[in-house]
Design goal:
Residues 177-314, 435-543 form the Fibronectin type-III domain. This protein is mainly beta. 12% of the residues lie in helices and 43% in strands. The protein is elongated.
Length: 557
Amino acid sequence: LKMFWFYLPLHLLMVACLCHSIKVPTTSSQQSFRTDLFNFYHSLILADGKETTVHLLKDIPKRYYFVLEEGRALAPFTITVTPCDVPIEWSIHVHKASASFLGKAARGDHDTQDDSKSQKAPSTVSTIFNYKGNSVETYMGMSSHSALYMLEFLSTERDTHITVYFTTDTTSGHLYPELPMDPRLDVVGIGHTTVTLTWKHSPSVLQHRENIQYCLLVNEKHNYKSLCAAETAIRSSGMKLPPALALSLSPYLLEPQQVMILSNSELSIINKASSGEVRQICVGTKNTYTVPNLSPSTQYYFDVFVVNLLTNASAAYTGTFARTLEEPEPKVMELKDGKVIHVVLDGKKDKFYSLQYQAMHKKIRFSFQLCHGQVQIHITKNGKTVALENISGLRYFSLKGKLLDTYLVQLRSTEESNSSLKVQVSSHFHKPLFPLLPESLKIKSFSKLRTCNSVTIAWLGTQEESKYCVYKRRIEEHQVWRELQNADRCSGPQSRPKSEKVLCKYFYDINLQRAVTTETIQGLDAGTLYLFDVYLFGPSGIPIRYHSKVVKTRKKC
């Protein structure tokens, strides 16, 4: 047994001394002794030079111990504690044992009578540091080999976790990147949808540029004091988040609720949580960045973290916040009675295009013809909404009000690409802008009537005599999708070559069931794709384009 004490490592010897200082329990102290044993056996030795994740249960303290390597009289040490959620309490206690007591422990002398007389003499316990909060705190001190140090952590709000970094090596660099003397972020520019930030360089970036980068976090709630705290908050919102290494260009860690944007060597990960949008943007070693695509008149919180790509450890700059400028009122264009205007909407800017009309009659009609894309229309009368919908093709709104009522029409593209449409407002119902339309604008082809040099198509007409013109054009297989998707439904045949014109004809039928016409187009090439268009002309002369139809002639007959 004496030989066992002699060969014990120092850190176990110190723990053994701590156990030795606990008096053998009597009946009256059994409960207290059980508590001491529970706390001891649920304590751990803190690893030197490693970051340790500690999980805390509410109101249950957790203890970690550390000592120096044997043979080192005095040495500096540092402890960095990073709360990852709620504020915590933590403290450092030092247990100093006397040399004579250590000698007794090593020799295995366990005289019960001596122990009872001197149980208070062998060691003293003192608190050298305590802290309560959720900031990242670092303690630096000097350690003695004859002292056992205990770290105690407690969370009184809820279950949480923290990270603890302990090291006695202060000469071989830092696990955490260094912050500059002034770690504040400066807001140097504010726009309607942008905020420009700048910060002083980290000394670690200047020394180890290839292993260090800055990562910016943007959200609408509050600042975060550590990257660990930010990730915990995002997880608690109901979504999964990749480890912090995702900030170091690891796109394979992304979850379905995340969107990654990589451009100009910048990685942006957008976490679309139910509580809002959290954006993580890694910008390399640049210390100035303009955050794009923000919403006008919105307060945002900005945090910058300097990240060590090798260890994934990070340090947080002092966060800041800024409110984007209010979006200026859109310019309003006056609509004139009976005049047709062509409006092109920029889908990327997501802005409204506004038109205003003051009624000179009690009854008016708005006419909209969608040319390309998808458009949302919002019509108000004297500030009250009278129509709000997404349109396709042709759409009429017949409204009734009072003289001098003010109508405001707001148009917005619902696609990221550009959209366009034609708009008219008129009080003359007897002079419609567009012709009477059939039930369907589809063109039908008859497969059985196809030959090597002809195809037969059909389309619906109306009860009103109108002019119909047919055009054709040869296309290749790879052009089909693009032609059908990008067709301008407002463009007339005047922009097409005369060689593409097949014929024009007039027809109508009082009985809508018989208002159908067919046409066989001759002189085609075998095994060739053709794009067919039909244009309908009404009294106003504005054409309506049927949906294009692609037909392939037979290869062999």
